Amino acid sequence: MSRRRSSSRSRRRGSTGSEIGHYLLGGFLITLALSLAGGGAYFWATAATPPSLDKATLCPKDGYRSATVILLDASDTLPDVTRRELRTTLLDAAQSVPEYGMLEIRLLNPGVPSGDTVFAKCNPGDGTGVDELTGNPEMRRKRWQESFRKPLESALDGLMNPSASETSPIMSTIQSIAVDRFSGSRAASMPKTLIVASDLIEHGPGYSQYSGKLSFEEFKRSDAYKRVRTDLNGAEVTFLYIQRITKKPINSAEHIKFWVDWVKDGNGGQVVAKKLQGAG
Known about the structure:
Elements: H1 2-46, E1 67-72, H2 80-95, E2 102-107, E3 116-122, H3 137-159, H4 170-182, H5 185-188, E4 192-198, H6 216-220, H7 223-228, E5 236-243, H8 252-265, E6 271-279
Parallel strand pairs: 1-2, 1-4, 4-5, 5-6
Antiparallel strand pairs: 2-3
């Protein structure tokens, strides 16, 4: 008799333990579900929201995040190999413009102090790295292709045609670009890049490098220096050097050094110079 009562009590205790285990498991699952739901809500709440963009320029309405300006000097015909290399190099440079950064292309024009602006858009992002849960990478890729890449290629193709001119005011054009894009407190804190595709032969009434005088120290003592002295506000500069065959040969090493010294004197950042293939 006592054995049966003991066995009965044991079964009741076992049943109660099982019920407690089910309750604990259920509570754990509920807590886990709530944690996951809360984590998801936090993820959605804290995911970076893309800025509102201007429809025409694709730039954030509160301002672009960086500035890259390409100045192209097409005052003389380019050899075919130079033209092809230049196009590829400029497309690569455009591809590297940071997301929401401004890309502007200007054509050297002696009649326009700042040059002719032929392209000015921000890189809206091509969808790389965009989460499918919080964004639409395919839509962003399509927008980048149709509204940024294709117009850029079209602009570059149109710029490769020469436009003959009597002067080449490269310095004063860069000076205007610096005032337009690299000056001010906002510009001071953002990445800034200037790319100059040119034979870099400065030529005008007050100063001409066709004379072969390439001493920067001598140039600093001239009135021309005072007129075109430029504050680049830390902008990095790349020279894509187009080689020319002139009546009086120009020493390309001395010529490039002159421009590197001019950039450094003008508060520029890192300077890179690359000779393009071909000569004409």
